Amino acid sequence: ASPLAIVTGAPGWLGTRLVETLVTGMSEVPGLEAPLGERRVRCLCLPGSDTSSLSKLSDRVQLVEGDLTDAASVKRLFEGAKGATVFHSAGVIHPTRGVKQFTDVNVEGTRRIAAEAESAGARRLGEGATGGPGRDRRGCRDRREYDDRSWRHRRHGDRGRCQDRQSGADR
Fold first, then answer.
1. In what order do the strands lie in the sheet with 4-8?
2. What span, in angstroms and rounded, lies between the C-alpha atoms of 164 and 135?
3. Cβ(40)–Cβ(4) below 8 Å
4. What distance in Å separates the CA atoms of residue 109 and residue 74, rounded to the nearest whole number?
5. Are the beta carbons of 144 and 113 closer than 8 angstroms?
6. Which of 18, 162, 41 has the alpha carbon at shortest distance from 90?
7. Measured distance CA(25)–CA(1) in Å, rounded
8. Closest CA to 90 of 124, 70, 113, 73
9. Cα gap 11→118, rounded to integer Å
10. Where are the alpha helices (DSSP H) in the chain?
11. Which residue(s) pair with 62 in the sheet?
């Protein structure tokens, strides 16, 4: 079988550009001038999303309807994916179901993709992140509880301080 690329985030802007590049190449970038051979591209697409631009690209583009928050969808995405290259570009930028959606999609969805990719025997996983839980505006990772009333978080047990991981200094 021909090599497989798995893409999340299509039919969003970034995911669609990535699928286009995998299928048709990108003439203005050295090394990407030509399409990547007979590679098949499998995309996880939200139910009800407009996938017409992806369907028109090539018969090598396979659409899997599903959601990062649904384990069965992600499992279906990785069926027969041994040796695949995974491009994870899905994420929530503007939540429609409250701030908890950031954690459900951007954090837990990414964990689900990584775990399923490993379980399926994928060869590589590349991830392009959106802003969201797991990093505050100063770039410090810590444990947080997000609520749906605001973009702010309540820290657990750190008295509102954030320590620099390398120097140990409070920020």
1. 61-65, 40-45, 4-8, 85-88, 124-127
2. 13
3. yes
4. 9
5. no
6. 18
7. 21
8. 113
9. 24
10. 13-24, 52-57, 71-77, 100-102, 110-120
11. 42
pLDDT at 159: 37
Residue whose tokens read 């007979």: 38
Q: CB-side exposure of 35: number of CA atoms within 13 Å?
A: 14
Which neighbouring-strand residues pair with 147? Answer: none
Mind listing the pLDDT tens digit for each residue in 64-110? Answer: 999 999 999 999 999 999 999 999 999 888 888 888 998 899 889 99
Report pLDDT digits (tens) over 23-50. 888 888 777 777 767 789 999 999 999 9
Going by the DSSP 8-state scheme, the letter that residue 130 receives in this structure is P
Quote the pTM value. 0.73
What is the Cα–Cα distance from 15 to 38, expressed in whole angstroms? 19
Query: Across-strand partners of 127?
Result: 88
Spatial contact of 85 and 6, defined as CB atoms under 8 Å apart: yes
Q: Are 45 and 10 in contact (CB under 8 A)?
A: yes
Bridge partner residues of 64 (DSSP): 44
